[in-house]
Model the fold of this input.
Amino acid sequence: MAELRWHPLTQDWVMIASHRQNRPQMPKDWCPFCPGSGKVPEHFDVYKYDNDFPALSQDPPTPDDVADDFFRTAPSYGKCEVILYSSKHTATLPDLSDEHVAKLVDLWCERFEAMRSDPKIKYCFIFENRGEAVGVTMPHPHGQIYGYPFVPKKLRLETASAAEYAAEHDGKCLFCEMMEHERADGRRIIFQNEHFTVFLPFFTEYPYGVYIISNRHCKYLTDFTKEERLSLAVTLKQTVTMLDSLFDYTFPYMMCMHNAPINCEEANGDFHFHIEFFPPMRSAAKMKYNASSETGAWAHCNPTCPETAAEELRAAYRRATGRTE
Done:
Protein backbone atom coordinates (compact mmCIF):
# COMPACT_ATOMS: atom_id res chain seq x y z
CA MET A 1 0.00 0.00 0.00
CA ALA A 2 1.27 3.45 -0.95
CA GLU A 3 -1.12 6.40 -1.03
CA LEU A 4 -1.93 9.78 0.47
CA ARG A 5 -4.79 10.19 2.93
CA TRP A 6 -6.29 13.56 3.82
CA HIS A 7 -6.35 14.49 7.51
CA PRO A 8 -9.48 16.69 7.78
CA LEU A 9 -8.71 17.85 11.33
CA THR A 10 -5.31 19.36 10.49
CA GLN A 11 -5.95 19.88 6.76
CA ASP A 12 -2.80 18.06 5.75
CA TRP A 13 -1.89 14.96 3.77
CA VAL A 14 -0.53 11.83 5.47
CA MET A 15 1.67 9.43 3.52
CA ILE A 16 0.59 5.81 3.97
CA ALA A 17 3.48 3.56 2.91
CA SER A 18 3.03 0.15 4.45
CA HIS A 19 5.42 -1.41 1.92
CA ARG A 20 8.29 0.31 3.78
CA GLN A 21 7.71 -2.16 6.62
CA ASN A 22 9.32 -4.76 4.35
CA ARG A 23 12.66 -2.97 4.26
CA PRO A 24 15.33 -5.57 5.07
CA GLN A 25 17.60 -5.25 8.09
CA MET A 26 21.03 -4.65 6.59
CA PRO A 27 23.82 -7.08 7.57
CA LYS A 28 26.45 -5.50 9.79
CA ASP A 29 29.24 -6.37 7.34
CA TRP A 30 27.56 -5.00 4.18
CA CYS A 31 26.40 -1.54 3.13
CA PRO A 32 24.57 -0.77 -0.14
CA PHE A 33 26.09 2.73 -0.16
CA CYS A 34 29.71 1.56 -0.09
CA PRO A 35 31.74 0.89 -3.26
CA GLY A 36 31.78 -2.81 -3.96
CA SER A 37 28.14 -3.31 -3.05
CA GLY A 38 27.02 -3.32 -6.67
CA LYS A 39 24.55 -0.55 -5.85
CA VAL A 40 26.81 2.49 -6.30
CA PRO A 41 29.81 3.42 -8.48
CA GLU A 42 33.24 2.19 -7.47
CA HIS A 43 34.45 5.76 -7.13
CA PHE A 44 32.44 8.82 -6.11
CA ASP A 45 32.59 11.86 -3.88
CA VAL A 46 28.85 12.57 -3.61
CA TYR A 47 26.10 10.60 -5.28
CA LYS A 48 22.33 10.59 -5.86
CA TYR A 49 20.69 7.22 -5.15
CA ASP A 50 17.02 6.52 -5.80
CA ASN A 51 15.37 5.26 -2.63
CA ASP A 52 14.75 1.49 -2.81
CA PHE A 53 11.61 1.80 -0.67
CA PRO A 54 10.13 5.20 -1.56
CA ALA A 55 7.08 6.62 0.18
CA LEU A 56 6.45 8.62 -3.02
CA SER A 57 7.08 7.73 -6.65
CA GLN A 58 6.49 9.20 -10.10
CA ASP A 59 4.60 6.04 -11.06
CA PRO A 60 2.44 5.50 -7.97
CA PRO A 61 -0.06 2.66 -7.57
CA THR A 62 -3.78 3.33 -7.57
CA PRO A 63 -4.94 4.09 -4.01
CA ASP A 64 -6.79 1.32 -2.21
CA ASP A 65 -10.58 1.41 -2.40
CA VAL A 66 -11.06 2.93 1.04
CA ALA A 67 -12.25 6.48 0.30
CA ASP A 68 -15.88 7.63 0.48
CA ASP A 69 -17.76 10.94 0.33
CA PHE A 70 -15.91 12.08 3.46
CA PHE A 71 -12.51 10.36 3.53
CA ARG A 72 -10.17 11.33 0.68
CA THR A 73 -7.20 9.58 -0.85
CA ALA A 74 -4.74 10.54 -3.57
CA PRO A 75 -1.92 8.77 -5.42
CA SER A 76 1.42 8.87 -3.60
CA TYR A 77 3.03 10.84 -6.41
CA GLY A 78 6.46 12.34 -5.88
CA LYS A 79 10.12 11.46 -5.60
CA CYS A 80 12.33 10.10 -2.82
CA GLU A 81 16.10 10.24 -3.23
CA VAL A 82 19.07 9.41 -1.03
CA ILE A 83 22.05 11.74 -1.20
CA LEU A 84 25.36 10.07 -0.30
CA TYR A 85 27.83 12.48 1.28
CA SER A 86 30.92 10.33 0.75
CA SER A 87 32.06 6.89 -0.37
CA LYS A 88 33.66 6.43 3.07
CA HIS A 89 31.36 4.46 5.36
CA THR A 90 32.29 6.17 8.62
CA ALA A 91 32.87 9.74 7.38
CA THR A 92 30.94 12.64 8.87
CA LEU A 93 30.55 16.18 7.58
CA PRO A 94 33.40 17.48 9.79
CA ASP A 95 35.71 14.85 8.22
CA LEU A 96 35.13 16.21 4.70
CA SER A 97 37.03 19.06 3.09
CA ASP A 98 35.29 22.37 2.39
CA GLU A 99 35.54 21.61 -1.32
CA HIS A 100 33.95 18.19 -0.81
CA VAL A 101 30.99 19.67 1.10
CA ALA A 102 30.67 22.27 -1.68
CA LYS A 103 30.15 19.36 -4.10
CA LEU A 104 27.35 18.19 -1.81
CA VAL A 105 25.73 21.64 -1.94
CA ASP A 106 26.00 21.56 -5.76
CA LEU A 107 24.34 18.12 -5.85
CA TRP A 108 21.51 19.38 -3.63
CA CYS A 109 21.02 22.26 -6.07
CA GLU A 110 21.10 19.91 -9.06
CA ARG A 111 18.49 17.61 -7.56
CA PHE A 112 16.34 20.56 -6.46
CA GLU A 113 16.23 21.80 -10.05
CA ALA A 114 15.42 18.29 -11.29
CA MET A 115 12.46 18.01 -8.91
CA ARG A 116 11.29 21.52 -9.70
CA SER A 117 11.12 20.55 -13.39
CA ASP A 118 8.23 18.20 -12.53
CA PRO A 119 5.14 20.45 -12.34
CA LYS A 120 3.35 17.92 -10.12
CA ILE A 121 5.90 18.39 -7.33
CA LYS A 122 5.00 21.33 -5.09
CA TYR A 123 7.67 21.11 -2.41
CA CYS A 124 11.27 19.87 -2.44
CA PHE A 125 12.42 18.95 1.05
CA ILE A 126 16.13 18.32 1.66
CA PHE A 127 16.95 16.78 5.03
CA GLU A 128 19.32 14.62 7.03
CA ASN A 129 18.64 12.28 9.95
CA ARG A 130 21.81 11.65 11.94
CA GLY A 131 22.33 9.18 14.75
CA GLU A 132 20.56 6.24 16.36
CA ALA A 133 18.70 8.64 18.68
CA VAL A 134 16.59 9.77 15.71
CA GLY A 135 16.11 6.25 14.35
CA VAL A 136 18.94 6.01 11.83
CA THR A 137 19.86 2.40 11.03
CA MET A 138 22.26 3.15 8.15
CA PRO A 139 25.46 4.79 9.47
CA HIS A 140 26.88 5.58 6.03
CA PRO A 141 26.83 9.41 5.72
CA HIS A 142 23.75 10.40 3.79
CA GLY A 143 20.70 12.63 3.64
CA GLN A 144 17.48 12.50 1.68
CA ILE A 145 15.30 14.58 -0.61
CA TYR A 146 11.52 14.23 -0.82
CA GLY A 147 9.53 15.81 -3.61
CA TYR A 148 5.95 16.18 -2.34
CA PRO A 149 2.86 16.69 -4.54
CA PHE A 150 1.61 19.11 -1.86
CA VAL A 151 3.09 21.75 0.45
CA PRO A 152 3.39 20.19 3.94
CA LYS A 153 1.53 21.91 6.76
CA LYS A 154 4.53 23.45 8.54
CA LEU A 155 5.85 24.91 5.30
CA ARG A 156 2.39 26.23 4.45
CA LEU A 157 2.28 27.96 7.83
CA GLU A 158 5.75 29.49 7.39
CA THR A 159 4.93 30.61 3.86
CA ALA A 160 1.59 32.11 4.90
CA SER A 161 3.20 33.90 7.86
CA ALA A 162 5.83 35.42 5.57
CA ALA A 163 3.19 36.57 3.07
CA GLU A 164 1.00 38.00 5.82
CA TYR A 165 3.89 39.91 7.37
CA ALA A 166 4.93 41.36 4.02
CA ALA A 167 1.35 42.46 3.31
CA GLU A 168 1.08 44.19 6.70
CA HIS A 169 4.58 45.77 6.74
CA ASP A 170 5.07 47.36 3.31
CA GLY A 171 6.65 44.28 1.73
CA LYS A 172 9.23 43.65 4.44
CA CYS A 173 10.58 40.12 4.88
CA LEU A 174 9.55 38.38 8.09
CA PHE A 175 12.85 36.50 8.25
CA CYS A 176 15.01 39.57 7.56
CA GLU A 177 13.15 41.46 10.29
CA MET A 178 13.68 38.56 12.70
CA MET A 179 17.40 38.62 11.97
CA GLU A 180 17.65 42.37 12.51
CA HIS A 181 16.27 41.87 16.00
CA GLU A 182 18.47 38.82 16.69
CA ARG A 183 21.60 40.73 15.64
CA ALA A 184 20.58 43.79 17.63
CA ASP A 185 20.19 41.63 20.74
CA GLY A 186 23.24 39.48 19.97
CA ARG A 187 22.88 37.00 22.82
CA ARG A 188 21.60 34.17 20.64
CA ILE A 189 23.96 34.67 17.67
CA ILE A 190 26.43 31.76 17.61
CA PHE A 191 28.61 32.84 14.67
CA GLN A 192 28.26 34.58 11.34
CA ASN A 193 30.18 35.26 8.17
CA GLU A 194 29.67 37.32 5.05
CA HIS A 195 26.88 35.14 3.70
CA PHE A 196 25.24 33.21 6.57
CA THR A 197 24.29 33.57 10.22
CA VAL A 198 24.03 30.70 12.70
CA PHE A 199 21.86 31.41 15.72
CA LEU A 200 19.62 29.90 18.37
CA PRO A 201 16.20 31.48 17.76
CA PHE A 202 14.43 33.50 20.44
CA PHE A 203 11.57 30.97 20.19
CA THR A 204 13.59 27.77 19.75
CA GLU A 205 11.65 24.62 20.64
CA TYR A 206 14.79 22.51 21.16
CA PRO A 207 17.65 23.26 23.60
CA TYR A 208 20.24 23.25 20.81
CA GLY A 209 17.93 23.80 17.83
CA VAL A 210 20.15 26.17 15.82
CA TYR A 211 19.14 27.81 12.55
CA ILE A 212 21.32 28.76 9.58
CA ILE A 213 19.92 31.64 7.54
CA SER A 214 21.21 33.37 4.44
CA ASN A 215 22.19 37.00 5.00
CA ARG A 216 21.00 37.88 1.51
CA HIS A 217 17.28 37.49 0.85
CA CYS A 218 17.00 34.32 -1.25
CA LYS A 219 14.04 32.01 -1.33
CA TYR A 220 15.79 28.98 -2.88
CA LEU A 221 19.07 27.17 -2.34
CA THR A 222 19.58 27.44 -6.08
CA ASP A 223 19.56 31.26 -5.91
CA PHE A 224 23.01 31.29 -4.32
CA THR A 225 26.12 32.35 -6.21
CA LYS A 226 29.13 30.02 -6.43
CA GLU A 227 30.75 31.99 -3.60
CA GLU A 228 27.63 31.66 -1.45
CA ARG A 229 27.42 27.92 -2.11
CA LEU A 230 30.99 27.45 -0.87
CA SER A 231 30.19 29.64 2.12
CA LEU A 232 27.14 27.49 2.89
CA ALA A 233 29.34 24.38 2.73
CA VAL A 234 31.81 25.90 5.20
CA THR A 235 29.03 27.19 7.47
CA LEU A 236 27.26 23.83 7.52
CA LYS A 237 30.47 21.96 8.26
CA GLN A 238 31.35 24.39 11.08
CA THR A 239 27.85 24.08 12.54
CA VAL A 240 28.01 20.28 12.69
CA THR A 241 31.57 20.41 14.03
CA MET A 242 30.32 22.78 16.74
CA LEU A 243 27.49 20.41 17.69
CA ASP A 244 29.93 17.48 17.86
CA SER A 245 32.19 19.56 20.09
CA LEU A 246 29.35 20.44 22.46
CA PHE A 247 29.54 17.16 24.38
CA ASP A 248 32.51 15.64 22.57
CA TYR A 249 30.64 12.96 20.62
CA THR A 250 28.94 12.61 17.26
CA PHE A 251 25.83 14.67 17.93
CA PRO A 252 22.47 13.33 16.69
CA TYR A 253 20.14 15.69 14.87
CA MET A 254 17.52 16.19 12.23
CA MET A 255 18.58 18.84 9.70
CA CYS A 256 15.79 20.36 7.60
CA MET A 257 16.25 22.77 4.69
CA HIS A 258 13.39 25.19 4.18
CA ASN A 259 13.08 26.54 0.66
CA ALA A 260 10.03 28.27 -0.75
CA PRO A 261 7.39 26.02 -2.36
CA ILE A 262 7.61 25.33 -6.10
CA ASN A 263 5.12 25.05 -8.97
CA CYS A 264 2.26 26.63 -7.00
CA GLU A 265 0.85 29.99 -5.96
CA GLU A 266 2.67 29.84 -2.60
CA ALA A 267 6.00 30.05 -4.49
CA ASN A 268 6.36 33.76 -3.83
CA GLY A 269 9.26 36.04 -3.01
CA ASP A 270 8.30 36.55 0.65
CA PHE A 271 9.98 33.33 1.79
CA HIS A 272 13.62 33.26 2.95
CA PHE A 273 15.90 30.21 2.73
CA HIS A 274 17.03 28.78 6.04
CA ILE A 275 18.06 25.50 7.66
CA GLU A 276 16.54 24.25 10.91
CA PHE A 277 18.27 21.75 13.20
CA PHE A 278 16.33 19.56 15.61
CA PRO A 279 18.81 17.82 17.95
CA PRO A 280 17.10 15.40 20.37
CA MET A 281 19.55 15.97 23.25
CA ARG A 282 18.99 18.42 26.14
CA SER A 283 22.29 17.53 27.83
CA ALA A 284 25.18 15.18 27.22
CA ALA A 285 23.21 12.15 28.43
CA LYS A 286 19.57 13.23 28.48
CA MET A 287 17.15 13.31 25.57
CA LYS A 288 14.53 15.97 24.93
CA TYR A 289 11.46 13.88 24.21
CA ASN A 290 8.44 15.16 22.36
CA ALA A 291 5.77 14.08 24.81
CA SER A 292 2.01 14.75 25.00
CA SER A 293 2.09 18.55 24.94
CA GLU A 294 4.44 18.67 21.96
CA THR A 295 2.87 15.80 20.04
CA GLY A 296 -0.79 16.06 20.91
CA ALA A 297 -1.20 19.83 21.13
CA TRP A 298 1.82 21.11 19.16
CA ALA A 299 2.56 23.15 22.31
CA HIS A 300 6.31 22.92 22.69
CA CYS A 301 8.23 23.31 25.94
CA ASN A 302 11.96 24.02 25.87
CA PRO A 303 13.55 22.96 29.21
CA THR A 304 16.53 25.30 28.76
CA CYS A 305 17.06 29.05 28.50
CA PRO A 306 17.98 29.90 24.88
CA GLU A 307 20.45 32.59 25.96
CA THR A 308 22.29 30.13 28.23
CA ALA A 309 22.31 27.41 25.57
CA ALA A 310 23.66 29.94 23.06
CA GLU A 311 26.61 30.58 25.39
CA GLU A 312 27.32 26.84 25.45
CA LEU A 313 27.16 26.68 21.66
CA ARG A 314 29.48 29.65 21.22
CA ALA A 315 31.99 27.96 23.55
CA ALA A 316 31.66 24.74 21.52
CA TYR A 317 32.19 26.72 18.30
CA ARG A 318 35.38 28.26 19.69
CA ARG A 319 36.67 24.83 20.73
CA ALA A 320 35.79 23.34 17.36
CA THR A 321 37.44 26.10 15.31
CA GLY A 322 40.22 27.16 17.65
CA ARG A 323 38.94 30.73 17.67
CA THR A 324 39.18 32.97 20.70
CA GLU A 325 36.75 35.79 19.81
